[in-house]
């Protein structure tokens, strides 16, 4: 078990390593991008990465404050399900009614890598590879299809 300070330091070191590694990777349009805080520029649509004690996860989080708009955005992603799968190369888990850490209602599309830990530095290469491939594929999809979500930009 790690103290709070040790856990904080390990997590900070991981995210610093991941950020440094990904800084070299341009987005699908050849532009520099902040992979850790990926900006979709659409209110309520986020590409999230999360690494914990037992898993790593990449997700599309739809958390628009208006639940009817949140569901419309999720349905728009459903319209692109086969296209998205062609970019991702695998099935992700689609959850129309999910909850974030604070109990707020969200929708998610995600994939998880189990049996790894941010606290085992030997797992870091596998975690970074997992996060990198998923985020690059999401970015390629987003660069090619974000115009289809522009209708939600100012809602």
Secondary structure blueprint with pairings:
Layout: H1 4-23, E1 45-51, E2 55-62, H2 67-79, H3 81-88, E3 93-99, E4 105-114, H4 124-145
Antiparallel strand pairs: 1-2, 2-4, 3-4
Percent of residues in beta strands: 15-25%
Distance between the termini: 45 Å
The total count of strands amounts to: 4
Widest β-sheet, arrangement of strands: 1-2-4-3
Number of helices: 4
Radius of gyration: 16 Å
In short:
The chain has 155 residues and is of the alpha+beta class. It is built from four helices and four strands, in the order H-E-E-H-H-E-E-H.
Structural features, described:
- Strands 1-2-4-3 form a four-stranded antiparallel β-sheet.
- The protein has four helices and four strands, in the order H-E-E-H-H-E-E-H.
- By secondary structure, the protein is an alpha+beta fold.
- The protein has helices at residues 4-23, 67-79, 81-88, 124-145, and strands at residues 45-51, 55-62, 93-99, 105-114.
- The model has no long low-confidence stretch (mean pLDDT 93).
Tags for this model:
alpha+beta; 4 strands; 4 helices; 155 residues; four-stranded antiparallel β-sheet
């Amino acid at each position: 078990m790690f103290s709070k300070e040790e856990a904080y330091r390990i997590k900070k070191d991981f995210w610093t390593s991941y950020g440094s590694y990904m800084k070299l990777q341009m987005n699908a349009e050849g532009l520099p991008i902040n992979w850790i805080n990926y900006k979709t520029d659409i209110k309520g649509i986020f590409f999230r990465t999360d690494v914990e004690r037992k898993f790593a996860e990449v997700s599309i989080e739809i958390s628009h404050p208006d639940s009817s708009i949140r569901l419309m955005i999720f349905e728009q992603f459903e319209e692109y399900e086969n296209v998205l799968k062609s970019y991702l190369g695998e099935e992700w888990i689609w959850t129309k009614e999910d909850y974030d850490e604070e109990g707020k209602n969200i929708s998610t599309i995600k994939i998880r890598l189990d049996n790894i830990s941010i606290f085992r530095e030997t797992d870091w290469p596998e975690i970074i590879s997992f996060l990198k491939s998923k985020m690059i594929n999401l970015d390629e999809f987003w660069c090619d299809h974000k115009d289809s979500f522009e209708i939600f930009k100012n809602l």
